[in-house]
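Supplementary notes for students who missed Thursday's class. We covered one full example, reproduced here. Read the sequence, then the structure, then the short commentary at the end.
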Amino acid sequence: MPELQHRKADLSRTRMRDRGIYLLPNLFTTGALFAGFYAVVQAMNGRFEHAAVAIFIAMVLDGLDGRVARMTHTQSAFGAEYDSLSDMVSFGVAPALVIYVFALQSLGKFGWIAAFVYCAGAALRLARFNTQLETVTDKRFFQGMPSPSAAALIAGFVWVMVEYGVEGQDVRWLAAAIARHAPTRIIALGDSFHDREAEIRLGEDSRATLLRLQAGRDWLWVTGNHDPQISAAMGGDSAATVDLRGVTLRHEPDARETGLEIAGHLHPAAKIRMRGRALRRRCFALSARRCVMPAMGAYAGGLNLRDEAFRPLLGAGYSAHLLGDARLFRIDPRLLLPD
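Structure (token representation):
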């Protein structure tokens, strides 16, 4: 009887060990899936170097799950399908969103169409691979470009650009605005740099262009939550708030402000329906006492003007002014759509 109990205990331990080995390759796949999701989140927060590194980590984990499964003889149809879904997120969706936020967002619909083409290509590549699992006999060769290699090209490009201080659209938009309006005073309304180290990563060409634009003008950096301190090497002066003839300029709007205020931070965007299709554009949000500025950089997103965050700032009587190619378009708030 004790011997029988001992054998049952050994059998139970063996089953638990087998189950653990079976789960092991799928844990690597889950890790790759998490890395792809993490890359998307970091891209949304403007941390493109972290996003690129996460995609490369996903590549390493993706290479390990299949190898571990073969070593432990735990290949399964579930593992193959799970691996493909993970690859679609890590090497299809994540690189497309990273490159879109980094450099393509300013191109409008052409930017997101280009990002979608890559994403669809990755999906088609994975679907083709899955249908050929049983027909391909020689595993030493791969037909077409593997999706991890395609993702590596995009992630590597973004990583190199960030490392050498080349931004997605650099300072071309700023130079164009200055050339058109020829202002004598320029006030940057906070979050001009995406983190405390962005000044260090700024490329020499961009730095020289920035200093050239500052020549002969009053230049003031209003500090923001991403750039609470701006070094003197960036030129100009810096301050947390600016009072300009009774108008307070600050980065983050303050609902307690009783005077006139111009602020940024929330980066308003308006969504409307025009000619049967939805259109979403950056916009100015105006009330009787406050103006919330839209985002001008490529990295910043836009918060829908119908969001609750605007209610205590603007009240009921506000208007939206959408940015067009050459002018602003005033939109009745009743026409605004939620996301």
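Commentary. The domain at 2-163 is CATH 1.20.120.1760 (Four Helix Bundle (Hemerythrin (Met), subunit A)). The chain has three domains: 2-163, 166-239, 243-339. If anything here is unclear, bring it to office hours.
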